[in-house]
Hints:
mainly alpha
Amino acid sequence: MSEGLDMHAFALRIAAAALALTIVLGSLFLWIGVPVLGMWIAGQVTTSSVGFLFATLGGVPVTMVATGFAIYRLNAVYEGIRPGEPHASRSRSAWNVSLSEERAGFRRQRAPRPLVDVAMTASAVTALVLLLVWFFFIAQMQLAPMG
């Protein structure tokens, strides 16, 4: 019987690791893949710059919201099956934590940051750095004659 429990615990660890990887890659896709893919698709289906602008401004934010919702739903499943004691139910809102006199180190030990928060923050910073590198070092301005 203990072998069955070990296999179940092992399967839960594998599922938690797969969900964690999906959350991290989904966060990167949210901030990098969705805008790039959205602009590429808009470029393929439109013929004018105004159509491209409306398709991009309409499609990319909606897709980002849907992707973010899916990532947070995956995080809820991940928090439910990950090994160890669930911490998400005891965490406080950021404004409420700032009012407490509890030391930050003790607070982090009691309730560490959820994976989705860390993944979203790291992927957003990565996307911003890539955007700045592209803008300042790779992009070239093409001026078209007017008229």
